[in-house]
Amino acid sequence: MSFRRFLIKRTAIAAILTLVAVSVIFATLRMLPSDPFSGLVASGALTPSQVEELRALYGLDEPIWVQYLKYIQNLFTFQFGLSLTQQRPVSEIIGPALLNTMVLLLPALITTAIVSSLAGMYAGWNRGSWFEQFSIITTTFFRATPIFVTGIFLLIIFSYGLGWFPAFGMRSPMANPEGLAATYFSLDFLKHYILPFTATVLFYSGDFLMLARNSVVERKGSEFLKLHRAKGLSEMEQLGRAGRNSMLPLVTYFALRTGMLFQGVITLEVVFAWPGIGRALVQAILNQDYPTVQAAVFIMALAVIVMNLTADIAYARLDPTVEAGDV
């Protein structure tokens, strides 16, 4: 019963946060000093009467409360409407961009979670070693460095300096692949993929390494490890037991970070001209494309809130004391 109460409470909080997030998006866009069509009148591209027709077409001439209710209804039924600037469904813009972001960031997150967690466990088990000091200094440096700065340095060294990898985009300008296999499993894609992938792995490595290291350090002197040592287990076997009992913070952090993946790493996508959801959002904001901005931010906010809820539930399931303390 206590877990059911915990689940209901967390779900209600998630629903409220989602409503607040989408309301902030709506209010922020409507507070801008001009709408997407104002510049067209100033440039002479459209007459005022034509602009009024466009405003009526997109419902921007209706009372603000009517716009808000329609906005909420459309968002929660995933009907994002038409892009104001591209004149095509927003889902056709957001969908491929979101997939490109996930293809870049999810493998990078999985890679750094596995490699950095194992390295962190080894560093925590061998406190004071050169490996611990080197790994902490290196990963902290890359975590403290903005990801776009790391990306720029990678471009300078490996693209402009050595010429090993292309600098921008997800594929060569003349490439026109058809289908997922040709798009994401070609040599041309791999060449464009390596640098942004590397920048992402380096940026997130410090989080997982320090979480794993600190968890192992806390457990190294615990009673259950003393028992295993008395049973004659080797150092590596004891490290395996300590690492297994250190997975809780790593699993929950991975869930939280997965939710944030839907935001993309906006600055990284801009630096590498990667056609992900972060770059699509920047372009939509610059063009004041209300439907695209609303859809992109809604998906980002919803993903973060849902994965936070998932992390809370996982933590409560794996550690009952959290559930009991919350309820």
UniProtKB/TrEMBL annotation:
Residues 98-311 form the ABC transmembrane type-1 domain. Keywords: Cell membrane, Membrane, Transmembrane, Transmembrane helix, Transport. The chain crosses the membrane at residues 12-32, 104-125, 146-167, 193-212, 250-273, 293-311. Signal peptide: none annotated. SUPFAM superfamilies: MetI-like. GO terms for biological process: transmembrane transport. Pfam families: BPD_transp_1, BPD_transp_1_N. It is a multi-pass membrane protein. GO terms for cellular component: plasma membrane. It is found in: Cell membrane. PANTHER family: DIPEPTIDE TRANSPORT SYSTEM PERMEASE PROTEIN DPPB-RELATED. Belongs to the binding-protein-dependent transport system permease family. This is Peptide ABC transporter permease. It comes from Haloarcula mannanilytica.
